[in-house]
């Protein structure tokens, strides 16, 4: 509510000050405007506003646009008390203090030397109360001659202190909110940094765990062919030494024939197991797909599939499986055709080895169509055995296979996942039902990221 003022001009001025407060104007500008408003209501008055410091004992100038700057500077840091001029005493007492003659009033005994050189002889000061009757500062009216307040003068401090309290409280609340925002921002940044560090640590642990699992899998997979090769080589060496000993005592034809047969068998075992080890090593190399070693270029997806499918169809026919396609025309991509072809080959091989292991016929359907956000959706579906639900979440893990010992390394889908997510910048999803087949869906950007 606006305090009653002696004129319409004062009321208009109050509204202007309130508008400044509502707009969030700077406190200094609001207080300066308020001082000028009061000065315009009385002749020869010079107004000031002192703000109580956080220590509750000292004050500093908040506004005084018409007072000499040197005088205001001298009041900065003034300690309130029972005889601390008009302003310091008003704040100390919590009531209005009227000093009609600065030169003779005992309240100014220690301070009149600050005011009189600037021609200031009278000072009336009123404390400014905020919420909860907390004193925020004081409002003062100075005159250049000794003067006692008249009836019209007594309403002006009420106007000034009322509007000043609103402005000061609002500014302090905004300052407190800003401090809270800064504190919350600092907390958020600290928590974010902690979460990021924790996430990096989890990723590092996951990578180390994955590396450990991969190394263990490599050792396990290579152990069998290497062990078989070692046994065959050791056996062949023993047979060779025995044959050498028989030569000195006379070698029969039957012994030589038996040695040749055993040597041939050992050689076949060595060849099979070393070839198996070589295939495993080749599979392991594919796990770490490096896009830097892949050629990026623009290509038509239908042309890539036209080159890729003929040899796959030959393998499929040998197993009684038909490969069908449904490719939308005009699908252009700027990506890595080599890794994409490798991923599709692994998916088709996965169907042939696992989906149709126990059936003489079946179908694989490869579809491709444009998707939203300038991406391409490619799917490889089969109507084979499907994947058991407990196994589905682990199909991309290394060495996970439904047919251990059947010739696969269990790395095919792991390689596919690495290619799709790492090189091609897309994602892969699985939809499978046991006994009803599986569908792998690849969502790839038509233009690969840099």
Automatic annotation (TrEMBL):
In Pfam terms, one family for this protein is HATPase_c
Keyword set, alphabetical order: Kinase, Phosphoprotein, Transferase
Alphabetized CDD domains for the sequence: HisKA
What molecular functions are annotated in GO for this chain? phosphorelay sensor kinase activity
Question: Recorded E.C. number(s)?
Answer: 2.7.13.3
Catalyzed reaction equations: ATP + protein L-histidine = ADP + protein N-phospho-L-histidine
Name all Histidine kinase domain ranges.
217-448
Q: Name it.
A: histidine kinase
